[in-house]
Amino acid sequence: MSNIPSMTSSSTLSIHKSYQYDVFLSFRGEDTRKTFVDHLYAALERSGIHTYKDDERLHKGKKIDEELLKSIEDSKIFIIIFSLNYASSSWCLRELVKIMECQKSNDQQFAYPVFYDVEPSEVRKPNGAFAEALSIHKMEEATVKWREALDEAANLAGWELKDTANGYEAKVIKISVEQILLKLRSIHFSDDENLIGMHHRVQDVESSLQIDNLNVVRMIGIKGMGGSGKTTLARSIFDKVSTQFDGISFVENVREVSKVHGLQSLQKQIISDILHYQGYIVNSVHDGRKMLSERLCYKKVLVVLDDVDHISQLEALGGATKWFKLGSRIIITTRDEQLLKAHGVDLIHNVNLLTNVEAVTLFNRYAFGTVLLFKGYEKLSLEVVRYAAGLPLTIKVLDKRIPLKETLEKLELSYIALEDDYKEIFLDVACGLKDVFKEDAIRILESCGFHARIGLRVLEEKSLITSSSMFLHMHDHLQEMGRNIVRRLHPNDPRRHSRLFIHEEIEDVLANDLGTEATKSIIISEELRPEIIMRGLGKMKELSALHLHVDDMCYGSDYSWITEGWKFDQVSHYFPKALRYLCWRAYPYNYLPKTFQANNLVVLDMSLSGIVKLWKGEQKVLNKLRILDLGFTKLRTLDLGMAPNLERLILEACDDLIEIHVPNGCGKSLVYLNLDFCTRLRSLSFIKQLESVEVLDLNELSLWEFPDLIVDLRELKFSKNNIEELPSSIGNLHCLVSLDLSKNNIEELPSSIGNLHYLVSLDLSSCRDLKSLPESICSLQHLRHLNLKECAIEELPEDLGHLECLDWLNLSYTLIKHLPESFCMLKHLENLYLQHCDFIQNLPDDLGRLECLERLYLSFSKVREIPDSICKLKHLKQLLLEGCNQLKELPEKLGDLEALELLNVKGTCISHLPLSISLLKGLKICGFESKGQSIDTSIDDYQKHQILEEPSTKNHQKRGTTFFYLLVLLFCLQFKTNT
């Protein structure tokens, strides 16, 4: 690090100094050592405040004055007890000078005077007995310094004994200790705020504690993966709010301590912490529970139980809310969400990993002692971000503060506690299913006999994976841990690994026919020649899952280049009969191998391949097959008799498919059928035989008539067909939840559409001949999503406001002239799109009644005025007015839109912005121009996710400059208008 450029203190934010003492007591021993100071010291120590008094902690053999000065520098708070004889001690006066120097030069050190038997005025301008004590030193050179220090100290806020608590020393000590605690907590919290990204996380948890509500006991959970910062977050909150409670206890490492010392030791700790007495004996966990329930109910307490991993720990340490007095708060940190649910906590907070910017900032703090990004070290910082992936513990490892082995051991604790099946699911995710489609992962796991949905939910509750609506995710280091578990038994012998996932090892094992029965699954993500794959599977008798997900390498292409030089024959083709899951997208051959028994096959995905028929010659019956995907293949016919228990069938874009045969008794289990773009399919009559189908995709079939469908259908995709009229029988599909009729030639909807009482989503976009909606549509009480974009609709039903659940409405490019009076009754509407509405000139005056509205897009419409009521929309985040060339001004109270983040006024006639807009600190303004100057930030820039931003201090500086410029501009415009 010797090449790191030096930076001045003005450009860096240094790490906070660590202190040895919380409090330093400065006093004249003869006056107060055995009375006030003794009681104060005892009270401070009882409260856990590490206090320096006298010479009790000095090391032998060192000069007292050097040690003393060092102790002052190493203390956060100074309590100066001014007594009659304080000034008679040159020792005390030298202490005082040093204390005042520290107080003035360091914003993390604070001094508080206690006027024991003198008044502040006597110290400030020494007189009386205090002046006599000081006069002893009139010949000393330092007298002037001492007088200045006395004057400064006497002007500080502190406690005057005779005027505080009527002079009762015990009460004065209690008050002073409480205030010292409060100040220490604020200092600690200030330090924690400088833990990157901590401030808003603390705020979120603190608000959920509802500390001001003294009528309840609340239990809050903090959940996250190992090393994610749960303990740090809990400690920050504890330090910040603990002074508001009668008793406090922070129980660290519950999991580890309970294993070594038993739960009784932790029960004793809580009792001792809160009651300030160490003599309690806890003979058993049962006795401990009894003692806790009997003694904690009289105090408002704050208890943190850190790193809990078993329900018995919660039952022993925080058994029930009735143990605690109203107003008490219990915070529990864990990796296992199910524990929190089982214990009935009030709210669970997930610890979010660091953002990229926060990760870089944290690394810079550890590596360079500053939060700023050093020029020339950007690449290093980016590499750290990618490796750490938001995990604070990893960044500490990179700084060599925590050994890597210790970090991996911490991460593996959650895995060790899993049941065997869940361990296998975890390893499968780590060895190939990370970042794949969630439903694909579920199918793979279920095909291998696992209860995948339950298992993945357990892993997520234990913070081992995360998932979005579509994908499975896992932290890189958890993935690394899982792969190490698979490899460490035979680190140099891939043949004996249960899962193969490293390309070079897979190629070596397959190409050299080194496979064994140990291998249960193979994930191939890079291109391998088909003959290598097929010939290398011969010895893998127990292989249950084979998954190739090379990026559509042969989509729509000629497959000959892959098979060149290798003659297809049924003997050399081999798939193990144990296979339960087979996914080979872009499989280059027309048939499956004749030798493949496939009796155990549950999932077969041969999409994007050359498949014409599954087997050449006699077809086999696959009784266990549940999912079949032959989308984008050369398939010509399909007989569902070969898979009588099929549940999902995907035949998307099989443009050679002419017939699907459904024998009697087959197809009864089918719930999903995708026939999208099967344009040559002769008839859909077979659909009526599929009684259980819930989701049906009939997009782009070039149909001229609406087919006769299954009554229990839940989702129908019928886009890009040629129908001009919907039959009234569509109202019989009373179970429909989602209906897509977009891009058809429909001229009107039948009134029976109002019978679709469970409909949530209706898409009519680009039905360019549709001119009106039936009034019956207003009876769809569950409708949330209505898309009318590019329809020829001129007006909406008057009762549209009765769609109580509607939260998304797109009217862009329609011919609508006005919104109906009932429109503002849509209380749950969050997104309203009115772009390119050439005939809407005015918005409803009571637009402010749309209290949930977050996005209002009016770009390129002819709207002339924005009603003042818009300023009542407290949740509005985006207001897009780009290209509204009839719009000249905005409401003056636009600054009331406290959530507004984006305002686009490009291409409008707006000449000035309302002054109140300066109140919106987080606002981005696009396209405002005045007097040749402009504020222009594109929407793309606003929405773009940046890997690495400027350091936070620089961000604030930039934002402050823009904000200052905006204020100046607004005032100039206002002055011009007034004059």
Automatic annotation (TrEMBL):
Record carries keyword NAD: yes
One Gene Ontology MF term: ADP binding
Keywords: Leucine-rich repeat, NAD, Plant defense, Repeat
Gene Ontology annotations of biological process type: defense response; response to other organism; signal transduction
InterPro entries hit by this protein: Disease_R_plants, Leu-rich_rpt, Leu-rich_rpt_typical-subtyp, LRR_dom_sf, LRR_R13L4/SHOC2-like, NB-ARC, P-loop_NTPase, TIR_dom
Residue ranges annotated for the TIR domain, each copy included: 19-188
Gene3D superfamilies linked to this entry: P-loop containing nucleotide triphosphate hydrolases, Ribonuclease Inhibitor, Toll/interleukin-1 receptor homology (TIR) domain
Pfam families registered for this protein in UniProt: LRR_1, LRR_14, NB-ARC, TIR, WHD_ROQ1
Protein name (Swiss-Prot/TrEMBL): TIR domain-containing protein
